[in-house]
Amino acid sequence: MVLARRFGYLDPIPLLATAIGAAVRDMEYIQTHPTVVPKKGILIAEGMRGAGAILVNHNGERFIDELQTRDVVSEAILSQEGKTAFLIFDQAIRDESKLVEEEAQKNSLVSGATLDELAQKIGVPADKLKDTISKYNSYVQSGKDPDCGRTKLAKKIETAPFYAVEVTPAIHHTMGGLVINTKAQVLGQDNKPIPGLYAAGEVTGGVHGANRLGGNALTDIIVFGRIAGEEAAAFAKAK
Ligand SMILES: Cc1cc2nc3c(=O)[nH]c(=O)nc-3n(C[C@H](O)[C@H](O)[C@H](O)COP(=O)(O)OP(=O)(O)OC[C@H]3O[C@@H](n4cnc5c(N)ncnc54)[C@H](O)[C@@H]3O)c2cc1C
Known about the structure:
The chain has about 240 residues and is of the alpha+beta class. The protein is built from eight helices and eleven strands. It folds into two domains: about 1-30 and about 175-239, FAD/NAD(P)-binding domain (3-Layer(bba) Sandwich), CATH 3.50.50.60; about 30-170, Flavocytochrome C3, Chain A, domain 1 (Alpha-Beta Complex), CATH 3.90.700. Helix 6 crosses helix 7.
């Protein structure tokens, strides 16, 4: 049997495995994604910030280098009032990103013909937001961000209409799960393979350590998925 399932520790499949003695590890570790639309569960990928979106808090101020790692940005958002922030961008950034179009269609975006209108709609002080964006645009111009230390300053935010989407961190990946070896065999609590039981992907634990580089889950499922399939087929044939 090959086990493959996301959000391992929440699901019945690892429970099936642990019921027959499988070992688990790193169950206390998760990875959060910082920019998820509250209650809707829509993830706004890093590409949005890479294309030039900034993050501001409910006071209209930037508070973190938007391109920091997921754990750092998540922590920073959770430290803000209301534990949410706004991704802010303009039409020029929207034109560059297919992702934004998908989000727009899901009605997550608030738009304003001016920054004043946008600020009023999302309930942040307009003067603060305008000041933040004016400062940020000057940092794009100079290539230096003394406020937050962002080094990739993609684009000024200056082309109306302007957009905002409220975001907060959410669970993105569970780092813990079933213990496997390099043949994708599930190990028992005695550290020995459980005959005929294989696992790959997010149901497993320890492959990425306690945190994960974005993108590596796909390599994980392809590499260990293939190994698990081949090993399971060989096991079945040998029976
Ligand atoms: C929004 C989002 C974006 C992501 N983006 C990336 C990315 O860009 N790059 C990256 O590397 N990783 C990304 N990840 C993480 C990555 O997608 C997952 O880690 C990966 O898909 C896990 O694959 P899996 O096969 O282990 O589990 P899953 O993809 O969850 O597949 C498990 C399958 O098992 C099925 N299943 C469940 N229970 C049963 C059952 N009882 N019987 C039969 N079938 C069952 C499910 O329907 C599902 O099809 C993202 C995750 C999320 C949530």
